[in-house]
Prior knowledge:
Number of domains: 1
Order of helices and strands: EHEEHEH
Strand content: 15-25%
Strand order of the largest sheet: 1-4
Structural class: alpha+beta
Number of helices: 3
Shape: elongated
Amino acid sequence: MATKYRVNSETCVACGVCVEVCPVAAISADPYAIDPIICNVCGECVAVCPTEAIEEYEYTPPEPPGPPVIVRTSLALNLIMKVE
């Protein structure tokens, strides 16, 4: 887990100041949200938010997908099936 930021939609007034100061463009508008993958937790948005709508939370990244599944077929079987 890692500490990240998120926008509290109940206290956000959609002023857009956070979007302007974010150095990595991690904040999107409509609705205002911070991408936890892009965010580098610099705190610039927290410092400028007039309503203190940006809060910390413990982010758990999604589990990576498992290894790819390789499906092997027999060329001979495909040919037999096509002939029939």
